[in-house]
């Protein structure tokens, strides 16, 4: 209904048939359309509306017919043109013995300057790993655009009343903590 938040799905004759050579992703994102019977015999025929694409975008339909975008349902973001899933970065960090909990977020403290920040909690009695150690470790397995610009050690993660990580309560990195080897093109 108008004004209600939900995930955006796309369909129609212009829709791709799936991800190239990725049947696993195709099955996950290109799902059977619950509206296919309504459009059978319409423009493009039944095949055109048999599948719809789950975008992962959180939107709402406005009274004027336009769609307002609010963010992602998952934790995927776009950094320098690359799609980045925070869970993939967190999965690499949590493998370390000196990391008990981890949370990676995308911060945009300056407009248009998106950066990944990793928050780590070491096990009780263990010193937190240095940012240099973590950065070197991440570069061994991840491409540069997935390596966080900053690493912050916390005593504990801030939690919501439902005991989930309160991402909005994570502190901003101190000035001078953000580092990035990436140099933007001059034009």
Explained architecture:
It is a single chain. The protein has 187 residues and is α+β, with helices and mostly antiparallel strands. Helix content is 18%, strand content 31%. It contains five helices and nine strands, in the order βαβααββββαββαβ. It has helices at residues 23-29, 36-39, 45-48, 86-93, 131-141; strands at 5-11, 30-32, 51-61, 67-72, 76-79, 82-85, 101-110, 113-121, 150-153. The strands form three sheets. Strands 1, 2, 3 and 4 form a four-stranded antiparallel β-sheet that branches. Strands 7-8-9 form a three-stranded mixed β-sheet. Strands 5-6 form a two-stranded antiparallel sheet. It is elongated and about 60 Å long. It starts with a strand and ends in a 34-residue tail after the last strand. The model has no long low-confidence stretch (mean pLDDT 83).
Key attributes of the depicted protein:
187 residues; alpha+beta; four-stranded antiparallel sheet; three-stranded mixed sheet; 9 strands; 18% helix
Task: Give a topology summary.
Blueprint: E1 5-11, H1 23-29, E2 30-32, H2 36-39, H3 45-48, E3 51-61, E4 67-72, E5 76-79, E6 82-85, H4 86-93, E7 101-110, E8 113-121, H5 131-141, E9 150-153
Parallel strand pairs: 8-9
Antiparallel strand pairs: 1-3, 2-3, 3-4, 5-6, 7-8
In whole angstroms, how far apart are the ends? 43 Å
Over all CA atoms, what is the radius of gyration? 21 Å
Query: How many β-strands, per DSSP?
Result: 9
Helix count, DSSP H or I runs of 4 or more residues: 5
Tell me roughly what share of residues is in helical segments: 10-25%
Shape annotation: elongated
Structural class of the helices, strands and pairings?
alpha+beta
Determine the strand fraction and express it as a percent band: 25-35%
